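Researcher: Here's a chain I'd like modeled. Treat it as a single chain, no partners, no ligands.
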Amino acid sequence: MLRSRRATIHPKIAAVSSAIGPLVEAGEKVLLFCHHRATASELLNALERCLKTDRVSSTGPPERVWRAAWESLLPDDDSLVTPIIDWLCSPAMRRQVGRWIGVPASNPKSLAAQFARIRPRNTSSGVPTIFEAAKKLTEGLLDIQSTSTRALLKNIAKGEQTFGGKISHFPGRLDDGFRVMGTWDHDGHAERPKTLYTGKPDIVLAIFNSPFGPDVLVTTDRLSEGVDLHRCCRHLIHYELDPSPVRTLQRNGRVRRVGSWASMTSQPICYAYPTFGGTRDEKAVGVMKQRINAFGLLLGGVPSLGDDSGESQHSLVEEVLDRARKGLASLNRKLSV
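Model: Modeled as a single isolated chain. Structure tokens:
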């Protein structure tokens, strides 16, 4: 009985996967937070299957043309740039970049010119070009302060470390058709997902903050504070809510930052709290909304959990908070605060 239930995807996971699919196809990156590692493992395992593409085939000109184009643009003063160029020239990356370009040029010079001119994922003027994004990613990975990433690149260069097979060595296993990855400390109690990275997450953060690589990142509250996840992502899903409103706000703050993808593309930040009606999840979201509203009243400047303008009725608590907020706002104006 239990084994047959495990073989069937959870309805909430199925619903979330269906909602993520169109976002990924539209070129968006999506961040998902879970409160428990077991849930994160179950979710990542399911998303690996749901979002997996067919067998990856290369796009455009031969690999040697791509390699020559990247080598002409990226710095050559650090030997560790080679694993990065290897990754950019892997079949999955060539397919990803090739889709942004449309028709990749057949010679290195023209292809490099396309890298320098075309913007990935979104054509807004504020979005860096393919070359600018690759240069920034390369600088971040080669930063001498990031000792863990440089150590990883050294192991890859020596052939001692792989994550995506013989060609694509970076976390995410793009060459195997996976469009999702995860990062947390695996406890060994649940089935370990294929795309889970358990090391220091610097390289995962760098990849997710670029337009390259997997489109979806599943994580726990390990990444809920002190890191940036906003450079290429404006969609955040709280698959599980943490009981603390502070933690919820910290999660939201990962994509609500200066220089975010939302601001570069002139689009809104989208938070989602998926629930089924009449469940504990729905009640938890309702409680969290009240707590966030209370924080906003006491501290000021706290964004609300979603937009309640479409509801015909507010709870008594929400009405009291709304009236108090308006009164405080009026008093602040009088006091010139």
